[in-house]
From TrEMBL:
Taxonomic path: Eukaryota, Sar, Stramenopiles, Ochrophyta, Dictyochophyceae
UniProt cross-references to PANTHER family, sorted A to Z: 39S RIBOSOMAL PROTEIN L14, MITOCHONDRIAL, SIMILAR TO NOVEL PROTEIN
InterPro entries listed in its UniProt record: Diphthami_syn_dom, DUF5522, Rossmann-like_a/b/a_fold
Stretches assigned to the Diphthamide synthase domain: 128-311
Catalytic activity of the protein: diphthine-[translation elongation factor 2] + NH4(+) + ATP = diphthamide-[translation elongation factor 2] + AMP + diphosphate + H(+)
Region forming the signal peptide: none
Organism listed in the record: Octactis speculum
Bilayer-spanning residue ranges: none
E.C. number: 6.3.1.14
Main enzyme class: ligase
GO molecular function: diphthine-ammonia ligase activity
A matching Pfam family: Diphthami_syn_2
This protein's name: Diphthine--ammonia ligase
Length: 327
């Protein structure tokens, strides 16, 4: 084998996608990537091809290049749709790429009645990573009470196959129901679990959001309470060290009794949606007395260590009371 640089070089096909290309001197072997449609799609796009064979089903799948040649979304929820699934009717069930699942009446697109003076910059959006649970809800409530609710948006990731939000074990339909009731724009990001990088999927979701609303991103917001290693990861991947966004943590180190006070003030009932420990049953109401009693069994009162997760049933009270605005 000659010395590297003299007639050969390593090619990492996992880094190829529709935005790049496979070197013209290289003929990639799709069978070498038999278990990963993401890699196959990248190679096919690099070759300028409009179809590739799905490694699991053997079916022929249109590439992003094929869809771009069509010039518009066909409405079928195609795997590689480059148009944010604009014409898909049942988005929660069918989208395979990030797309806006609900658009708030106050988050108008740049072409839809925007009153911003010509030439003036549009206000940026604070985008909350939203899981449907109590911590996400309390973070949203905190943001709404401290600023303009029209400057908020939600982003939710979910499994592309099951349509389930990880850890919470809630269907993405729940997030849409919450966003609709609270009238906050929501973008959904289906995760395929292949070689796609998480940050690439998030970037595409944020692009779908800014394209739809015509507004830039001001910051990314998280409902983390006190786990430093989680915050460190977010800073490394999404913050100044990674994607370059400003990150916010409104509930960071807020005492649990204060969080419980605010939850009770909202009138929103929360229940356990998933549990990893004995003694915490799915369906259990998340209330003060029960929560405070968990510490005797070594369980974090808010399940911050992953002991349990919850869903906030915001639709049972008015939007105004839930968010603490206009009352």
């Amino acid at each position: 084998v000659p010395i590297k640089g003299r007639g050969w070089d390593r090619v990492d096909f996992s880094e190829n996608n529709c935005g790049g290309s496979v070197p013209s001197c290289v003929v990639a072997d799709l069978e070498d990537c038999a278990d990963d449609f993401v890699v196959r799609h990248g190679i096919a796009c690099g070759r300028g091809e409009t179809m590739y064979e799905d490694p699991e089903t053997g079916y022929q799948v249109f590439t992003e290049l094929a869809h771009k040649k069509r010039g518009k979304c066909c409405g079928s929820g195609c795997r590689h749709c480059p148009y944010d699934h604009a014409n898909v009717k049942d988005k929660t069930s069918r989208i395979q790429q990030p797309a806006v699942l609900y658009e708030a009446t106050s988050t108008r697109s740049k072409d839809d009645g925007d009153n911003t003076p010509a030439g003036a910059p549009r206000a940026g959006l604070k985008v909350l990573f939203f899981s449907t649970g109590k911590d996400s809800f309390l973070t949203l409530r905190s943001l709404a009470k401290s600023g303009d609710a029209s400057d908020l948006a939600l982003i939710t990731t979910f499994d592309a196959s099951t349509r389930t939000i990880a850890h919470q074990e809630t269907h993405v339909d729940v997030a849409v129901r919450q966003a609709s009731h609270l009238d906050v724009t929501l973008v959904g990001v289906p995760l395929h679990g292949k070689s796609e990088k998480y940050t690439d999927r998030i970037a595409r979701g944020l692009k779908a959001l800014t394209t739809r609303t015509g507004r830039p991103i001001d910051s990314l917001v998280f409902g983390d309470l006190h786990l430093q290693h989680i915050r460190d990861w977010r800073e490394a991947e999404l913050g100044s060290e990674g994607m370059g966004f400003k990150l916010e943590y409104p509930l960071w180190n807020v005492p649990y009794h204060e969080l419980m006070d605010d939850l009770e003030a909202s009138g929103v009932h929360c229940r356990v949606s998933a549990s990893t420990v004995e003694g915490v049953a799915v369906g259990q109401s998340f209330v003060r007395e029960w929560s405070e009693g968990l510490s005797a069994d070594g369980i974090d009162c808010f399940g911050e260590n992953g002991e349990f997760h919850s869903v906030a049933e915001v639709w049972k009270v008015s939007r105004e009371r839930a968010l603490g605005v206009g009352i």
